[in-house]
UniProtKB/TrEMBL annotation:
This is Tetraspanin-4. The keyword Ubl conjugation does not apply. It is a multi-pass membrane protein. It comes from Nyctibius grandis. Pfam families: Tetraspanin.
Amino acid sequence: FFIMLLIIFLLELTVVILFFVYTDKIDKYAQQDLKKGLHLYGTDGNIGLTNAWSIIQTDFRCCGVSNYTDWFEVYNTTRVPDSCCLEFSENCGLHSPGTWWKAPCYETVKIWLQENLLAVGIFGLCTAMVQV
């Protein structure tokens, strides 16, 4: 049992080290996957993803992965979801870019995670200590 726990602990440690070594590549792939995921927004069977994007864009006051133009590819026109609007109203995403959040969601959430890294680190250490 101890050997199994030790192997799991070493694998977790390896994953953490690899995460910090390959942060740039992880960033690039994450952004690509998120942009692909935008195309599922509002589609049948993807209510969770749709709600997640709406909540993130509303709470973090951001729009799109890199910027609001990411949504132009999804809709094939110059519009964004209503959750990107500075002041929410029905079909506000059809108005001009001056009424939309300009901040990119990926960077905004990434900065928030970095600011709260201490809490994430403490959680990870507590998990590791329980295993030991």
